[in-house]
Amino acid sequence: VEQTYIMIKPDGVQRGLVGEIISRFEKKGFLLKGLKLFQCPKDLAQEHYKDLKERPFFPNLIDYITSGPVVCMAWEGDGVVASARKLIGATNPLQAEPGTIRGDLAVQTGRNVVHGSDSPDNGKREIGKFCQWRI
Length: 135
Ligand code: GTP
Ligand code: MG
Fold this sequence. Notes:
Elements lengths: L2 E6 L1 H5 L3 H11 L2 E8 L3 H7 L9 H8 L4 E7 L3 H9 L12 H5 L8 E3 L3 H11 L5
Antiparallel strand pairs: 1-3, 1-4, 2-3
Catalytic activity: a ribonucleoside 5'-diphosphate + ATP = a ribonucleoside 5'-triphosphate + ADP; a 2'-deoxyribonucleoside 5'-diphosphate + ATP = a 2'-deoxyribonucleoside 5'-triphosphate + ADP
GO biological process, one term: CTP biosynthetic process
Organism: Aegilops tauschii subsp. strangulata
């Protein structure tokens, strides 16, 4: 069965949006397979975003993701990877449609509250890195 890695970023946790964000995936009908609160170490953040390491915002991105606890989750269901990306909305929250998580809850690309894997292979890989403890 397909699984995706969803991570509520430090701004989502600090702003008290954990319940709201989890609720969107629950209401959609996906299955929560694992969840923990976690302080992401710098090396894991760098590995997670390694495709972006040449971008000018990379140091800011690593500082952001490691700035406080994140919520690590594994979600399961048919088509969950693409569907979760739709529920999350565009990377830039100002371009994200109303009704999406980022469209409703965020304004800055650098503070966009949630991560979702971009392919089933990356979902598997990211769950392996962040959710080894899951059921
Ligand atoms: P994730 O689900 O977090 O992977 O976001 P995404 O797949 O929508 O975007 P992408 O993987 O391209 O970028 C990862 C993260 O880097 C984004 O979610 C942003 O937090 C950050 N990011 C991407 N582009 C920019 C940018 O131009 N400026 C800043 N400050 N941050 C960016
Ligand atoms: Mg991405």
